[in-house]
Amino acid sequence: MVELFDEDFDAIELAESALILNKAINPKTNDIWARNELKRLLKEAELALSHEVDEQQRFDALLRLFYHQWGFSGDQEAYYESSNAFVDKVLESRKGIPVSLGSILLYLGRKLGLPVSGVTFPSQFLIKLEWFGEAPKFINPFNGEYVSKQVLRAWLIGHSGPLAKLKPSHLKSVDNPTVIGRWLALLKSTLLREERYTLALKCTDLALSFVPDDPYEIRDRGFIYQQLDCHQVALSDYQYFIDQCPDDPAAELLKNQVNAMSLTQVTVH
After folding, report:
1. What's the pLDDT score for residue 8?
2. For the chain, how are helix, strand and coil distributed in percent, rounded to 5?
3. CA 163, CA 147: separation in Å to the nearest integer?
4. Which of 133, 170, 223, 237 is 20 to 30 Å from 205 by CA-CA measure?
5. How many CB atoms lie within 10 A of CB 214?
6. pTM above 0.90, yes or no
7. Number of DSSP helices (H) and strands (E) in the chain, helices first
8. How many whole angstroms separate alpha carbon 171 and alpha carbon 128?
9. Which run of H or E residues covers position 127?
């Protein structure tokens, strides 16, 4: 398996980092084609925007090119499909979710010399635009629209509850490893939902290569092993979680699960 966290993700663009993650989870990821496609889109963008002198107008022209001429858009019909988190699939279908679409837009914007960065806002990924001497602006990568502070406050309340307050930390630019960590969790969630347990197991293995003793990752790994009929390993992982997090509400449920599994014949793989 690729040692994901040995990569210097801050030395490359987020979309390239995501392709490394995608390939580590699913070896069938068409990463070579995707890298070439990113370069092709960049060349097309450079040509299309060559007449734009004003930098802000240049960025708006990039948004029009990306969302209208090329047809990239958020996948409203199948938002939670795992394909929306694989960059090669998003480049193929031109549909994705905020983080995958945002990574491609960031790639283009940064290569074009525009002042863009990524923000892991609690409810979704954002693009941050910082013009010299002006307050930052924020783009929703799902549709390419500017998002006001008022809308961001509403999103935060919807995500975290009525007492949530918008803080500067919510709008801080983040490094690629932070985004990749959240992307990995997102991929695991979508793969579990699709019952693609072998690929989901790769997600937990990657996460545990970074934080080896995380009881919640080990609990999730136990669930995956149970689905794969590896009951002995699942029991061990469940017991580890129970021992490490005895006050977690899930621990009591898992105790019952462990007792029930222990009464059945153990299958060793």
Report:
1. 78
2. 60, 10, 30
3. 21
4. 170
5. 16
6. yes
7. 11, 6
8. 8
9. strand 125-129
